[in-house]
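User: Here's a structure from my thesis project, written as structure tokens. My advisor, Dr. K., wants to see whether a designed sequence matches the one we expressed. Can you design one independently, without my sequence as a hint?
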């Protein structure tokens, strides 16, 4: 694909070569994310960051990634702090804010809303999550993490065995990840959820059409026995009509050290897009796994900065200029990756 000036709205827009290009540029971002080098390649550029749903990782890591490239960030968070609360349309909002920014990242609760916004924007727009639809940058950082975890075990992504667990109906991260995995070959995908929260049929069909083996189950223990990756997800309570309805499913699948030791192969990688729900009635990914070396959740969050830096330099067409605008840091830093 042509990255320069493009919106990033869905993983469907990527070919395998595009993903490999993003990952190659992400690798090059490591000295900057580690803070051994700083670059001013985006000096003067402005990121418009618009998050109309709660976010910790996506909002802050996109902002940090832009800052690490020398750019500045202007933010609005929540409908209540935006003129959308006064009835302004997405069209008008996009026309206005794209006059203030060089690139925009947006999260919104309605599926398709970020695409609608992008159609009216005069600058590239990145989808930071649109309801239960897609979260393309999360899928890219997840796949980048899968690639690096498997590389450390002498493997590639083809022939991957992965179990996705939890609220697969509403979880946009697993929707985007499944679509992205369709670019690879001969995968075994186990989808573990209550029947009411199963993966949308069109995504299962897409996986099968690409030749991947897909098994659907509502039993955790047997489903995680022969996989390379267990990808746990939270019950997406914000997508349910009531807390009581979400409570029916919370805590149904709990991965903890005991379950892991009893049922997983010794090197199975544990992933989660975060936030995990650490309340007592949930704990889909228990804190007692925190010292397990196969727990990759914080490597995922670190990798998010690399992948988001890569997206910015590709979209703004400066990937080849990053090092020209760089220097070593002059303050004390600790290696963080
Ligand atoms: N994974 C993810 O999207 O996290 P946030 O909701 O904190 O951005």
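Assistant: Designed independently from the structure alone:
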């Amino acid at each position: 694909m042509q990255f320069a000036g493009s919106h990033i709205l869905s993983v469907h827009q990527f070919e395998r070569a595009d993903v490999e290009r993003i990952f190659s540029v992400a690798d090059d971002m490591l000295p900057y994310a580690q803070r051994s080098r700083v670059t001013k390649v985006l000096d003067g550029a402005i990121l418009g960051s618009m998050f109309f749903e709660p976010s910790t990782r996506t909002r802050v890591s996109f902002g940090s990634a832009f800052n690490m490239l020398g750019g500045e960030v202007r933010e609005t968070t929540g409908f209540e702090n935006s003129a959308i609360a006064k009835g302004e349309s997405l069209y008008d909002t996009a026309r206005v804010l794209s006059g203030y920014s060089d690139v925009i990242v947006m999260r919104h609760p309605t599926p398709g809303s970020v695409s609608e916004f992008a159609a009216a924007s005069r600058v590239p727009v990145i989808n930071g999550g649109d309801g239960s639809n897609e979260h393309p940058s999360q899928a890219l950082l997840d796949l980048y993490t899968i690639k690096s975890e498997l590389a450390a075990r002498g493997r590639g992504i083809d022939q991957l065995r992965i179990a996705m667990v939890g609220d697969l109906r509403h979880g946009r991260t697993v929707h985007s990840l499944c679509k992205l995995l369709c670019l690879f070959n001969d995968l075994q995908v186990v989808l573990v959820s209550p029947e009411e929260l199963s993966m949308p049929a069109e995504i299962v069909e897409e996986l099968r059409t690409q030749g991947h083996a897909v098994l659907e189950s509502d039993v955790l223990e047997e489903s995680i026995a022969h996989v390379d990756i267990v990808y746990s997800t939270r019950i997406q309570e914000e997508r349910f009509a009531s807390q009581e309805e979400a409570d029916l499913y919370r805590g149904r699948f709990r991965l903890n050290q005991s379950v892991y030791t009893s049922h997983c192969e010794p090197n199975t990688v544990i992933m989660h897009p975060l936030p995990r729900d650490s309340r007592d009635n949930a704990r889909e990914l228990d804190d007692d796994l925190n010292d397990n070396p196969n727990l990759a959740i914080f490597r995922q969050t670190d990798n998010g900065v690399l992948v988001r830096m890569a997206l910015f330099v590709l979209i703004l067409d400066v990937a080849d200029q990053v090092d020209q605008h760089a220097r070593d840091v002059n303050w004390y830093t600790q290696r963080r990756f």
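When you compare it with your expressed construct, this may help: The mean pLDDT is 96.
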